[in-house]
Amino acid sequence: MRIRLLLPMLALVAGLGTAVAAPAAAAPGPVTAGDVAAADACYTWGRTLSEGASGDDVRQLQIRVAGYPGYGGVLALDGQFGAGTKAAVTRFQQAYGLGADGIAGAATFAKIYELQDNDCTPVNFTYAELNQCNSDWSGGNVPAATAKANALVSMWKLQAMRHAMGDRPIDVNGGFRSVACNNAVGGATNSRHLYGDAVDLGAGSQGFCGLAKQARNHGFSEILGPGYPGHNDHTHVAHRSSRFWSASSCGI
């Protein structure tokens, strides 16, 4: 993600060492996808995206704004820029003080580039945090690549949650588990950890209930915390097909 200034820098270097003033350059034309092909080491968007667009670039955007669906919402990662994606982009823009029009253009992408590392994880979370079981994401209830992809989405949701809570660190206690790892810790046979989309959080400075309450705004359809059996010492957030929130000690 650190390659974005390559073209301007090359132009500057090329201009050094010449003593004769060059004639005024013509106004530059519009930036094309080819001009920005090396703009970011993780992923580069080559066009402005707005409602009605579709494609993998839309899906890549949806992953990055998955933590902004609104209270109780879950953003579909379907590559279709509909009303839900526009609303999520708008909330992302509002969260970072950008022009909030729901259109993903240069300013929105620049902020995303700033927030992501070269492996596409958000800057404050890592794959290693989300997988303390093995090195290759294998042995769960889904293929390894699916488990890892699910974990990436969870990280972007956590990044949104972290920002909403004043950018204070969020303590991750664990994520993906293989069947063997899950059995070793006495996990439920249908645990979302086996799918790579569950994360257990430590109290940190926010507290278990603070985390559980905030998670309701960031795309987690499963939230378990104090008051739910076996969850008095952590807050669990995950994705599932239907909503299940239970943390009675927190009023959830």
Query: Helices and strands, in N-to-C order?
Result: HHHHHHEHEHEEE
Q: How many alpha or pi helices?
A: 8
Oligomer: single chain
Q: Major sheet, described briefly?
A: 5 strands, mixed
Mean pLDDT: 89
Could you describe the 3D structure shown?
The structure is a single chain. The protein has 252 residues and is of the alpha+beta class. The protein contains eight helices and five strands. The protein has helices at 6-15, 56-64, 83-95, 106-115, 127-130, 144-164, 179-184, 208-215, and strands at residues 172-174, 198-201, 222-224, 235-238, 244-246. The chain has a five-stranded mixed beta sheet, covered by helices on one side. The protein starts with 5 loop residues before the first helix and ends in a 6-residue tail after the last strand. The model is unreliable at 2-28 and 33-38 (pLDDT under 50).
Short description:
This protein has eight helices and five strands.
Question: Main attributes?
Answer:
252 residues, single chain, disordered N terminus, alpha+beta, 7% strand, 8 helices
Tell me the layout of helices and strands.
Layout: H1 6-15, H2 56-64, H3 83-95, H4 106-115, H5 127-130, H6 144-164, E1 172-174, H7 179-184, E2 198-201, H8 208-215, E3 222-224, E4 235-238, E5 244-246
Parallel strand pairs: 3-5
Antiparallel strand pairs: 1-2, 2-4, 3-4
